[in-house]
Specification:
The chain is an alpha+beta fold. Helix content is 31%, strand content 16%. A hairpin with a 2-residue loop joins strand 1 and strand 2. It is globular, with a radius of gyration of 16 Å.
Length: 154
Amino acid sequence: MVDKIHVKTTINGLPQEFLVDPFMSLLETLRDVLNLTGTKEGCNDGNCGACTVVLDGRIVDSCCVLGAEIEGKTVETIEGMAGPDGLHPLQQAFLEEAALQCGICTPGFLVSAKALLEREPEADEHRIRYWLAGNLCRCTGYDKIIKAVQKVQA
């Protein structure tokens, strides 16, 4: 039997400390250890983007990162987007533009779009599509998602 690994990290601005199995993914760690179930599992092999989080300022597929690897790092998940005053403007725009249906891909799109707009607030449609290319949607198509991101820019 393999011993669990002690991890200290910051998730959504809050210090966290927990034990994790050495081969447990960050996705499993978030959902099963920390009860942060907003990050979704789609493919579990890094192809769909449903599990996208921000790790030390970079978007990553949490299914491809080990939970133990976040020791001393900062993680931002969908649970950290809304503030005490309500939804993040991107979340509100997704609602207003009907940019979601089943909801599996939505957290990953939101986390990725937020990361883009923090880096490139004036990104054009081509850049938005390029940035979100790692996120797949099987329900809505992409036009409403792109419109929602552009609406936040306006």
